[in-house]
Amino acid sequence: MIAPRRFLQAFIFLSVAVLAIAQDDIQEEPPAGEDPVDTGVDVDDVGEDSYKSVKGTAKKAWQNFKPSLAHWSNKRCVENSDAVGILARLSASGFIATHIVRKLMQDGYAVRGTVRSVSSSNAKHLQTLSAESGGEGTLELVEADLLSTEDWTNITASASYVVHCASPFQVSGKDDDFSAALVGTRRVVQAAIDTPSVKRVIVTSSIAAVSSGRDDVHLCTFTPDDWSDADKSDPYPKSKTLAEKEARQLVANQPAGRGLELVTINPGFVVGPSLSERQDFVSFDTIKRLLNGSVPAAPSLSLSIVHVDDVAEAHVRALSRGKPGGRYICWSGNLWLYEVCQCMRNNESITSYRVRLPYFRAPNFLVWTIGLCDKTARAIVSRLGVESFYDTSSTTSELGIAFKSADDAVVDAALDMLQRGLV
Ligand SMILES: *[C@@H]1O[C@H](CO)[C@@H](O)[C@H](O)[C@H]1NC(C)=O
Ligand SMILES: *[C@@H]1O[C@H](CO)[C@@H](O)[C@H](O)[C@H]1NC(C)=O
Ligand SMILES: *[C@@H]1O[C@H](CO)[C@@H](O)[C@H](O)[C@H]1NC(C)=O
Predict the structure, then answer these.
(1) Which residue has the higher pLDDT, 2 or 264?
(2) Closest residue CA from atom 2 of ligand 2
(3) Is any ligand 3 atom within 6 A of the Cβ of residue 416?
(4) Half-sphere exposure of 33 toward its Cβ, with a 13 Å CA cutoff?
(5) Which positions make up the signal peptide (predicted)?
(6) What whole-number distance in Å separates Cα of residue 214 and Cα of residue 238?
(7) Measured at the alpha carbon of residue 350, what is the angle toward residues 345 and 355, in degrees to the nearest 5?
(8) Domain ranges in the chain?
(9) Mutation pick for ligand 3 pocket among 343, 346, 349 (CB with most ligand atoms within 8 Å)
(10) Over the stretch 90-111, which tens digit does the pLDDT of each residue have?
(11) How far is the CA of 347 from the centre of ligand 3 (A)?
(12) Residue 408's pLDDT is what?
C-alpha cells in the first residue's frame, strides 16, 4: 500500500532536517506575529518548493522523531513495572507472566499468582484466563507488592516452585531506582529459600544481564557465561544484572542441606500477542509506534527479538528440566527496525489495516547530530548500528525450545493489536 504523503514526508525529512537543525530554530515556537508553521504537507504544496512548507515538514518530522528516539533510549524500559510475578505455583499480571500462567494452567498446575490489586483492571484478564486456558489447572490470586510486602513466606507456602518474573523499574533514572528490582528479588528468593516445599525457583532475568556495557559487542557471540558490566550499563540493564546476581548470591548462601535450585531465563526483547488489555509493555509500544505513523524514519537500531510464547514455554520447562544454576538465553534473532517494518509490510493481513509504517531509515549522522543537543538522542547514539548475537544452544538442547522466528513474533504482535483495534 503506497502512502504518498508519508513517503514525501519522510523524504523531505531526511533531506531537510539536518539543514533545519543547523539553523538552530527548529525546536523553537514561531516568534509572535509569525504564522504558525504549517504542519501538514499537502502533496500539491510540495511542488511549489516553498521553503516555509518544507521547513514546516521538517519541523513536524522532528517533533515526531524526537519522542520516537526517547522511546528507544533504555530509560524507557518499564516492562513488568507493576506486575509482580509469581509463583506456583505463583504468578502475575504482566505481559510475560500472563503467558506463563496460561501455560502452567494448561499443564494442570495449581497456580498462586500475585497481583498488586485483585480488583484492578490489570488483573481482570487473569480472572477469565482459567476459563479460557482449557486445562486442568487452577489459579488463585493473592495481593502482594514487591516493594511493600516484606514477608512472602505465606505466599510461597506449600508451593513446589516459585517463578519470579516481575521486575519493578522506575523511570526517573535516579541512582536508587534499581534498588526496587533488587529488593523485590531478594524478598521473593529469600521466601523461596525459607519455604521447605519449594524445590526450584525460576527468575526472569534478561539478556540485559548478559551483554550490556561491554566493549566487545562486535567481537563475540554472547553465551550464558557472559555477564554485563553493571558499572558501564544504563539503569535498566544495570537493575537486571544486579538483581540476577543477587538471586544467585542468595541461593549460593542458602543454609547447608536446603538444596533449593535456581534457574534464570534470560530473554531478549520479548514480542508477541498480549493476553490482556494492558498496553504498558515496551514491545507493544514499539510496534504500535511503528504502525501508527509516529516514527517518520527508523533509526538503525537492532532489536534482539524473541517470541513471548517461547519465553513462557522456557519458564514452564525450566520447572522440571534444565541444570540447577542454569542460565537460559531466549533469543530468536536480530531485526533492524527497518526490517521490523519490512516484515510487517510483507504481511497482507497487516497491510489490510490502515497502517503507517516508516519507509526510510534515519541515517546515523542525523541521530548523531540531534544527539549533540538532545540528551535522549545521545542515549541511543552508542547503540546505532550495533548488533549483539547470542548462543542459545543450551536453551534448545536442555529445555527443548525450538525458537519461532523473529518475523513471526513481530507479525503476531502487530496482528494482535490491529485485530483488537489498539492501533
Ligand atoms: C500473608 O500475611 C499477611 C500479613 O500477615 C496477610 O495480610 C496476607 O493476607 C497473607 N497472605 C496470604 C496469601 O495468606
Ligand atoms: C502512536 O502510539 C504511541 C504509543 O502508544 C502514542 O504515544 C502516539 O501518540 C501514537 N501516535 C499517533 C499518531 O497515533
Ligand atoms: C500474516 O501473518 C499471519 C500470522 O503469522 C499468517 O497467518 C498469515 O498467513 C500471514 N499472511 C501473509 C499474506 O503472509
Answers:
(1) 264
(2) 289
(3) no
(4) 0
(5) 1-22
(6) 12
(7) 75
(8) 1-64, 80-281+304-336+387-419
(9) 349
(10) 335 578 888 888 888 888 788 8
(11) 6
(12) 97
Judge if the beta carbon of residue 294 lies within 6 A of ligand 2. Answer: yes
In angstroms, what is the span from residue 272 Cα to ligand 3's centroid? 14
Distance 412 CA to ligand 3 centre (A): 8
* Higher per-residue confidence, 128 vs 178: 128
**Of 158 and 321, the one with more pLDDT:** 321
| Residue 150: CB atoms within 10 Å | 9
**Angle, helices 282-291/337-345, rounded to nearest 10 degrees:** 60
131 has pLDDT over 90: no
> Residue 89, preceding bond cis, omega within 30 degrees?
yes
* pLDDT tens readout for residues 314-341: 999 999 899 999 999 999 999 999 999 9
Question: Could you tell me if the CB of 405 is within 6 A of ligand 3?
Answer: no
Question: If you measure from the C-alpha of residue 293 to the centroid of ligand 2, how many angstroms do you get, rounded to a whole number?
Answer: 8
Question: What's the gap in Å between 343 CA and the centre of ligand 3?
Answer: 10
Residue count of the chain: 423
Q: HEC states along the chain?
A: CCCHHHHHHHHHHHHHHHHHHHCCCCCCCCCCCCCCCCCCCCHHHHHCCCHHHHHHHHHHHHHHHHHHHHHHCHHHCCCCCCCCCCECCECCCCHHHHHHHHHHHHCCCEEEEEECCCCCHHHHHHHHHHHHHCCCCEEEEEECCCCCCCCCHHHHCCCCEEEECCCCCCCCCCHHHHHHHHHHHHHHHHHHHHCCCCCEEEEECCCHHHHCCCCCCCCCEECCCCCCCHHHCCHHHHHHHHHHHHHHHHHHCCCCCCCCEEEEEEECEEECCCCCCCCCCHHHHHHHHHHCCCCCEEECCEEEEEEHHHHHHHHHHHCCCCCCCCEEEECCEEEEHHHHHHHHHCCHHHHCCCCCCCCEEECHHHHHHHHHHCHHHHHHHCCCCCCCEECCHHHHHHHCCCCCCHHHHHHHHHHHHHHCCCC
**How many other CB atoms sit within 10 Å of the CB of residue 3?**
15
By most ligand atoms within 8 Å of CB, the mutation choice from 71, 285, 294 for ligand 2 is 294
Homologous superfamily in CATH for domain 80-281+304-336+387-419: NAD(P)-binding Rossmann-like Domain (3.40.50.720)
